[in-house]
Amino acid sequence: MSERFINPAISAVPPSAIRKFFDTASTMKDAISLGVGEPDFVTPFPMRNAAIDSLLDGETQYTTNYGIMPLREEISRYLKERFHVGYNPHSEVLVTVGASEAIDIALRAILSPGDEVLIPEPCYISYQACTRFAGGVPVQVHTMAKDAFELDAKDLESCITPHSKVILLSYPSNPTGAVLPREKLEAVARVAMKHDLFVICDEIYSELTYDGFSQVSMASLPGMWERTMTISGFSKAFAMTGFRLGYLCAPKAFTSAAAKIHQYTIMCASRQSQVAAWYALKRGRETGYEDIARMRESYNQRRRLMLKAFRDMGLECFEPKGAFYMFPSISKTGLSSDTFCDRLLQEKAVVCVPGSAFGDSGKGHIRCCYATGTDRLREAFERIAAFLVTI
Q: Model confidence over 282-298: pLDDT tens digits?
């Protein structure tokens, strides 16, 4: 009987594979999780203290729908200084409950039923689901390990139809850790302009790049500011996952449309989270973003450690240049990525996420997050190596 009352579009979307493995591991003693993409750093004390002070000062009221002005001004300044993109804090910056809400309302604000969204994959698991929730049609654009999972503009263009409306781009990438060099980003921009497509860019990992690479913001390229929505937040580079604070920036018409959904469904993000985020940006600007630099260097050391470990195990793995994920191939084992992860969890109590959770292009791979302590990583590698011997 209940099936008659459930929206078929919701029923058709499977539960998150990441949460499935995380929930199972939470019931197991001494499980090591390389599954959930969450920094193991605690939010720096000055940001926590700013939120506490706000609470003690009695700042417990709603904020404006767009967010407190000091935060919007800092976001605008930060994007201009760090990524060379300018937004008016009064009308082109919308504070959201994490980058996740920003992605959801961006798609709902832009898509009409049947509109197609071109999504390079492997991709973050929410993109296809949120596209369907918004009435759109996700279109997979495959990328491959032999190309470092970089999106090729010709492959993108081959997927365009009369129904194509949006390119949903995310570099550095979750789950692969891939980045997109400027020349390839420019090629994608030319495709967007040629076919009159809008671009939604999830740039949540832009601060986490390695070996001297810097990810260029799509909106900074000539001719792209007008047709790009920039999404980011504070969870990853600022280690503020529990604060659930993100933002969406775009020309006024687009932020206004997204703000309508936000104001009717959310109203505003937590005031204390906004204060903490404001202080994070202010402190970062004053200290040269030393907290980010410290975390980035720690991730970089773990990245090198994990890459060597997988290659020593005989698993093929391209070298990621961003985020804090690795995407080794397990195809030589003869197991599917789902079976591999199921057995690894049950037999060795190590959580990895099957690559198939991120689209067809992820089959034969597993996603491993190195945002955890070095000792735990080493133990996880020993367990994975022992598991490989049993296959």
A: 999 999 999 999 999 99
